[in-house]
Structure formats: structure tokens, C-alpha cells
């Protein structure tokens, strides 16, 4: 019996090896190279000069880095505060058994199918349309997303909420559909309110996928680049310049050493967040 088990495990490992090799090629080797670059001055690329922690000291001592870091954290916090409750609310009130289920699911999936590099262009056309401008003017709102930093933030947040709330909705909805009808019937017999049903039946069922949704949305929003860059190029006056935009600026400027140091710091930040969520998920599973 033991011999059979060992043979099965060996076969399973044999099928995992290609995946491990691919992961090493596309992830581990580039990561090692980036870490190596972060300790060198690499211009031109044919030669490298050891600089030690110079790029890290320069980066962590830069006010621009901390300002971008603060904006990225603020953006992620706003996104989570809006998208998580909104996604839960939509998922809870979506029909579970009717002809409208397919319509709702398709409607929720449409924003996720649009290429990420087209989102900003769609919203620029939408906000620049004469109809919307006249409509906002009618209600006394002068929405200047090009030169007003606060309005630009509103537009970028709305753009992200429109694009990614559907992900939260679909994840939560998938959990809600697994709740037995008997649970709702028992709650109705006991005279439970709608809030009680949500708190004691629906929310515990969604808690696992909610942690995943929060993690995915945090990572994606924290490293957002394409939408704010294509929307207003980080302006006005760098008000929407986030961490990833500074990284891309270093790359296109051939500052490979500083860019690598930025990448390593971002990687460490994401690792800390992942460890935090892993710990929270482990605690949740033990309960």
C-alpha cells in the first residue's frame, strides 16, 4: 500500500515539473535579474557598475516616491471602500432563480471583457461628449477633469468602479448561489429580518471569496497604471501620478537600476499584503 502511494506521488510530481519549469522561466529568473539590476548602474547595458544600496537610499529618501506611495494607498482605500460594499449589495439583490439571471450575469461580465487599455479612452469620449457637458452644466456642475485634480480623481475612481465592481459581484454571487433554500426558509420561520439573514447566513458564506476579492482589488488598484496614464497622464500637476507610473517613467528613461529598485520595493509591499491576507484566511478557515 505504501509503495503504491509513493508511486502515485512520483507520477504526480512528474506532471508538476513542466509547470515548475515554466514558472521558473517566466517568474523566478526575471525576479533574480531584477534584484541583481537593483544593485548596479546599468547604462549602457553592456556594462554594470556595483552601486550597492544607492538606488534604494535615493528612492526611499525621495519625497516624490512617498507622495506617489500615498496616492496609491489612498486610491486603493477608496476603491475598496466603494467596490466591496457595492459588489456585495448588487450580488445580494441579484435574482437567484429566474429568466433574469443570465441577463444579469452577462451585464456584469461586459465591463470585465473590455481591454484595459481602452477603458480610459471610452471614459474620455464619454466625459468629453457635449451631452454630458450640457447635462452637468444644467445641474450647476462644472466638471473639469483635465485641469481640476479633484474632478480627475472622481473620474478615475468612477472608471475603476465601473470596470471592476463586476468582479466582486460575480465572486460574491457564486457563493450566494450555494446557500441552501432551507436556510432561508428556516430564517423566515424564525422571523429573521433581512439584516439578520445577511449577517448570519449570507455574509459568513461570502467571507472566503470576499478576502480574495479584497486581495485582488488591492493589488490591481495599488499598481494601477494604464487607466490614469491614458486618461490624464498623471495630471494635473502630478495629482494622479501613482507608483506604477513612476516605475514606467524610469524604464522608458533607461534608468534600469532605479527601476529595478522600485520593482523590488513594490514586490516586498505586495508580499507583505499577501502574507497578511494569507494569515487572515488561515484564521477564517480555523473558525
Structure at a glance:
This protein has helices at residues 2-37, 54-60, 63-93, 100-113, 116-128, 130-138, 149-176, 181-189, 194-222, 226-232, 243-252, 256-286, and strands spanning 40-41, 49-50. It has 287 residues and is mostly helical.
Give the tags:
287 residues, mainly alpha, MetI-like fold, two-stranded antiparallel ribbon, globular
Describe the protein's architecture and organization.
By secondary structure, this protein is mainly α. The protein has a single domain (59-286), classed as MetI-like fold (Orthogonal Bundle). 78% of the residues lie in helices and 1% in strands. The chain contains 12 helices and 2 strands, in the order H-E-E-H-H-H-H-H-H-H-H-H-H-H. Strands 1-2 form a two-stranded antiparallel ribbon. A hairpin with a 7-residue loop joins strand 1 (40-41) and strand 2 (49-50). Helix 3 crosses helix 7, helix 7 (149-176) packs across helix 9 and helix 7 packs antiparallel against helix 10 (226-232). It is globular and about 75 Å long.
User: Helicity range of the residues?
Assistant: over 70%
Number of helices: 12
Domain count: 1
Coarse structural class: mainly alpha
**How many beta-strand segments?**
2
C-alpha termini separation: 35 Å
Amino acid at each position: 500500500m505504501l509503495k503504491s502511494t509513493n508511486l502515485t506521488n512520483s507520477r504526480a510530481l512528474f506532471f508538476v515539473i513542466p509547470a515548475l519549469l515554466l514558472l521558473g522561466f517566466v517568474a523566478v529568473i526575471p525576479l533574480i535579474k531584477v534584484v541583481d539590476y537593483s544593485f548596479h548602474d546599468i547604462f549602457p547595458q553592456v556594462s554594470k557598475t556595483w552601486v550597492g544600496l544607492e538606488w534604494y537610499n535615493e528612492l526611499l529618501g525621495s519625497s516624490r516616491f512617498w507622495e506617489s506611495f500615498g496616492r496609491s494607498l489612498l486610491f486603493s482605500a477608496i476603491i475598496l471602500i466603494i467596490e466591496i460594499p457595492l459588489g456585495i449589495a448588487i450580488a445580494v439583490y441579484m435574482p437567484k432563480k429566474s429568466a433574469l439571471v443570465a441577463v444579469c450575469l452577462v451585464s456584469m461580465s461586459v465591463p470585465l471583457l473590455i481591454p484595459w487599455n481602452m477603458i480610459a479612452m471610452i471614459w474620455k469620449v464619454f466625459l468629453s461628449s457635449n451631452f454630458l457637458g450640457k447635462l452637468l452644466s444644467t445641474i450647476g456642475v462644472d466638471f473639469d477633469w483635465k485641469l481640476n485634480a479633484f474632478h480627475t480623481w472622481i473620474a478615475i475612481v468612477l472608471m475603476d468602479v465601473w470596470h471592476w465592481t463586476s468582479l466582486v459581484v460575480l465572486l460574491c454571487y457564486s457563493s450566494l448561489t450555494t446557500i441552501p433554500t432551507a436556510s432561508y426558509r428556516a430564517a423566515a420561520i424564525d422571523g429573521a429580518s433581512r439584516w439578520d439573514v445577511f449577517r448570519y447566513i449570507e455574509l459568513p458564506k461570502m467571507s472566503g471569496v470576499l478576502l480574495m476579492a479584497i486581495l485582488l482589488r488591492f493589488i490591481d488598484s495599488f499598481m494601477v497604471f494604464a487607466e490614469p496614464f491614458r486618461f490624464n497622464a498623471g495630471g494635473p500637476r502630478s495629482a494622479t501620478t501613482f507608483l506604477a507610473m513612476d516605475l514606467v517613467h524610469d524604464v522608458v528613461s533607461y534608468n534600469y537600476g532605479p527601476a529595478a529598485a522600485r520593482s523590488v520595493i513594490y514586490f516586498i509591499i505586495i508580499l507583505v499584503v499577501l502574507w497578511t491576507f494569507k494569515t487572515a484566511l488561515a484564521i477564517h478557515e480555523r473558525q
